[in-house]
Amino acid sequence: MKCKNRKSQNKKLRQIVRYAYNNCKFYHDKWKEEKILPKDIKTVDDLRKLPIITKEDLQKNLLDIIPKNRNLIELRTSGSTGVPLSIKLSKKELYYRAFQRLRILRKYGLKLTDKQFIITEPRHTKELLSLTNIYRNIGFLRKQKASIYEDQKFIINKINKFQPDYIHGFASSIKLLSQKIIDQNKKFNLRFITTTAEIVDKKTKKTIEKAFNCTHYDIYNCVELGDIAWECPNCNKYHINESQIIVELLDESNNVVKRNDEGIITCTSLINKTTPLIRYKLGDKSIVGTSNCNKQALTHIFGREIDYITLKNKVKISPYTITNKLGSIIGLKKYLVFQESLNKITIKIEEKNKLKFNTIVKEAKKQLKKITEEKIKINFKQVKNIPLEKSGKLGVVKSNIK
Q: Other CB atoms closer than 10 Å to residue 311's CB: what's the count?
């Protein structure tokens, strides 16, 4: 993909490749085995010389990827891919992510005096709040929070009391909340609303915009990389954050696809030095298209579909209420959640060691009891391997209840 800031990207790429080779055992050993030196990578086009890394690589080799002697902050993914991960970031990198998000929100019309309402997992909420303290201390970007585990009626009352200008949250949670608002005939007038995690389809977008009487925008991101791309208010395609990330779309053989062809999203972070991610395959798919804004753009993003969990009383809950809890369990490498009926869920856990499996199950029961309140019977099954779907992704939450 052609980039308007290619010269700057090339410079940052050379710096991050050299840094990773000299400071990270994982990259040093892997590239040395391939007989690749930092001097071989001069431009973005040279990236294809480097091997791909996967979520499993990151999970198994985190200590060899992170440079030594760094004072770091740990972040854990939501577990929505079925492969929970931990990564490390410096405070500087966290603040950089916050400024990048602010830049996107300013494109959508955010004012520093606006009130923001954030609906997310408590771990992520604390992180988001800490990143904007510098603004709030001088009276800007006032913020209220809600947990995805809280009752929808309670969240609606919070929103009504706070009267925010802008709301952000997981797409699945916002969708359920929007349906509740419409059913209750509540009235809200926001400037805009943004979502992350799942990609929002046209029907869901209309529901959200009807409920909150404002425009909805989608931000494509992940914990490992931060905000990768964002829905442009002018062309409605996803502009890539090219100052911090290089995006490649690859075929099954890891070759770059042609324009208008579907490919697997693979990213190289130009700013992460605490957890360098170079040619990191996410597994989501997209299509490269042209943008009227003269920017790198993704026309569609696929692979983030995830089913809802339905309780006995037919109330649907966001799948992230499950995946966030499972994603927080240390030692859980891969899992699959399958809702067979209104009163039965089976969770497959990939673990060869029986003792480790029992330890994980004990913690999982403790975590999930808070959500299901024993309304659903949860069975745990130990398996040696959880295969990927034909799409190449792990269908992490599946449900027979539609």
A: 16
CATH of the domain at 234: 3.40.50.12780
3-state secondary structure of 358: helix
Where are the alpha helices (H) located in 163-201, listed in sequence order? 171-183
Residues 10 and 85 in one domain: yes
Q: Helix count (H) and strand count (E) of the chain?
A: 11, 19
Residue 203: inside a domain? yes
Q: Please, what is the Cα angle at 338 between 315 and 395, to 5 degrees?
A: 110
Domain limits for position 202: 93-221
Same domain, yes or no, for 160 and 188? yes
Element containing residue 289 per DSSP (H, E): strand 280-289
| Residue 214 DSSP symbol | S
Pairing of strands 142-147, 166-170: unpaired
Q: Which of 221, 245, 270 represents a domain boundary (last residue)? A: 221
**What type of residue is 38?**
P
- pLDDT less than 70: residues of the chain: 1-4, 69-71, 78-82, 123-139, 372-375, 388-395
Last residue of one domain, picked from the residues 262, 284, 302: 302
Torsion over CA: 94, 98, 99, 101 (sign): positive
Write out the two tokens for 319.
Answer: 């799948």
Query: DSSP assignment, residue 307?
Result: P
Q: Are residues 274 and 389 in the same domain?
A: no
Residue 1 in domain: no
The amino acid that residue 105 corresponds to is L
How far apart are alpha carbons 265 and 286 in whole angstroms? 7
- Domain at 376, CATH number: 3.30.300.30
Cβ atoms 376, 345 nearer than 8 A: yes
Please, what's the b/e burial string for 32-47 (b: 16 or more CB within 10 A of its CB; e: otherwise)? eeeebebeebeebeeb
* pTM (predicted TM-score): 0.86
Q: Is residue 153 part of a domain?
A: yes
Residues 176 and 265 in one domain: no
E strand residue ranges, 13-129: 73-76, 86-89, 115-120
* Torsional sign, CA 160, 161, 163, 164: negative
